[in-house]
């Protein structure tokens, strides 16, 4: 009799843990983008780094929503971040940007040297703050 009670108690105690484990085993919705962004202000010798995820729910990026919207418009084409006229001065104060990660399951890498912060902001903002 004691053995039967012990088995019932063990099953009763184990069921919530098994149920919880089953809930945790359900895969989360995959992120559209997971990008590691590094900005190097060459003259100053400073580095800044952000991690962008889209959707931006868990992103550690100051402009995540706007960055995700922009990347969605160009379907993750990071080369787009180095195009277009800027109207900026020709001052040389280089800023190097390196982006690595995934977009819709595709590996992405991007590296570009911008002439100055104005050019960077006009071409790559808000992806690169």
From TrEMBL:
InterPro entries per UniProt: Prot_inh_I16_SSI, Subtilisin_inhibitor, Subtilisin_inhibitor-like_sf
Family statement drawn from the similarity comment of this UniProt entry: Belongs to the protease inhibitor I16 (SSI) family.
Residues spanning the signal sequence: 1-30
Keywords assigned: Disulfide bond, Protease inhibitor, Secreted, Serine protease inhibitor, Signal
Keyword NADP found: no
Subunit structure: Homodimer.
An annotated GO cellular component: extracellular region
UniProt protein name: Subtilisin inhibitor-like
Major subcellular location class: secreted
Highest taxon in the source lineage: Bacteria
Subcellular location: Secreted
A single MF term (Gene Ontology): serine-type endopeptidase inhibitor activity
């Amino acid at each position: 009799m004691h053995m039967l009670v012990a088995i019932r108690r063990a099953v009763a105690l184990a069921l919530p843990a098994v149920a919880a484990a089953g809930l945790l085993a359900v895969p989360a919705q995959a992120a559209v983008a997971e990008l590691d962004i590094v900005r190097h202000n060459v003259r100053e010798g400073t580095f800044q780094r952000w991690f962008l995820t889209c959707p931006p729910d868990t992103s550690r990026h100051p402009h995540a929503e706007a960055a995700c919207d922009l990347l969605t418009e160009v379907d993750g084409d990071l080369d787009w971040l180095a195009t277009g006229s800027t109207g900026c001065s020709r001052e040389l104060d280089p800023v190097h940007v390196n982006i690595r990660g995934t977009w819709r399951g595709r590996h992405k890498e991007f590296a570009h040297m911008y002439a100055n912060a104005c050019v960077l902001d006009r071409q790559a903002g808000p992806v690169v703050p």
